[in-house]
Amino acid sequence: MSRTVTVKNVIIGEGTPKICVSLVGATLSDLKQEAAALKALAPDLVEWRADFFEQVEELEAVMDALGVIRALLPDLPLIFTFRSAKEGGEKEISTGDYIALNKAAAASGLVDIIDVELFNEEEDVRVLIAAAHDNNVFVILSNHDFHGTPPKEEIISRLRKAQELGGDLPKIAVMPGSPADVLILLAATHMMKEEYADRPIITMSMAGSGVISRLAGEIFGSALTFGAAYRPSAPGQVGIRELREVLALLHRSL
Ligand SMILES: O=C1C[C@@](O)(C(=O)O)C[C@@H](O)[C@@H]1O
Predict the structure, then answer these.
(1) Which of this chain's residues are annotated to bind 3-dehydroquinate (predicted)?
(2) What is the Rg, in whole angstroms, of the alpha carbon atoms belonging to the chain?
(3) d(CA 56, CA 31)
(4) Strand order in the sheet with 138-145
(5) Digits of tens for pLDDT over the chain (254 positions)?
(6) What is the position in ligand 1's atom list of the atom closest to the CA of 140?
(7) Alpha-carbon distance 89 to 53, whole Å?
(8) 49: Cβ below 6 Å to ligand 1?
(9) 5-7 and 10-12 as β-strands: parallel, antiparallel, unpaired?
């Protein structure tokens, strides 16, 4: 496995963490506005959080919207994400629909990466990874804990599981209850990177006290960070301009 993942000339896992911004519009017209405005901010990647889209249960509408987003942002690596309500997303859909949606996104030729949640049936995860890889689409294999920060060993074990299953970019987002929890996430990230990871990983501690984890990925081992454009897609995301400045500052100090 490669220590980096290259998507449309963006090398994830090398140099400063790459900046991703999420599109969170509820309607096609909101999404168009967001996508057009995003260009000026020049993120490295864009994520479409399809769970925010009010027509997400209509596959055809989703594919149409995907086509529009892709046409507006032809050169940026695009991540397709349906974040389930149990992991902090906007909606819950059936497993069958979740699989169909992700398979369709992977086969559409319109996205570069799909985000698959690790906490699905293992067989379903394997099916989605295979479907993505058959279409030369990468997989972020993700887990989100909006209620707390698991112990360091557990964070590492989830990231290792995501790697073993074939996720190209294992990811975990956790919620800190205290600054000590932020240290746990950072320590787990560092240990995963140093001892177990053979590919880039993505980690973050959310909310205010976790912000440091969104800035210091180059030091501790997280290869990608989510910044906010107008509306954050998760608590603790900072504005992309400030984020870029801080990432550059930390990079220069190394
Ligand atoms: O998984 C992630 C990370 C995230 O939850 C964050 O905390 O920045 C934001 C989500 O949009 C994305 O899918």
Answers:
(1) 22, 47-49, 83, 214, 233, 237
(2) 17
(3) 13
(4) 202-205, 169-174, 138-145, 113-117, 78-81, 45-49, 18-23, 224-227
(5) 679 999 999 999 999 999 999 999 999 999 999 999 998 899 999 999 999 999 999 999 999 999 999 999 999 999 999 999 999 999 999 999 999 999 999 999 999 999 999 999 999 999 999 999 999 999 999 999 999 999 999 999 999 999 999 999 999 999 999 999 999 999 999 999 999 999 999 999 999 999 999 999 999 999 999 999 978 889 999 999 999 999 999 999 99
(6) 1
(7) 11
(8) yes
(9) antiparallel
Active site residue 171: yes
Residue of 19, 45, 83, 201 to mutate, ligand 1, most atoms within 8 A of C-beta? 83
This complex has an ipTM of 0.97
Q: What is the CATH number of domain 5-253?
A: 3.20.20.70
What is the residue type of 122?
Answer: E
User: Taking a C-beta distance cutoff of 8 angstroms, is the pair 57, 83 a contact?
Assistant: no
User: Taking the domains of the chain in order of start, what are their residue ranges?
Assistant: 5-253
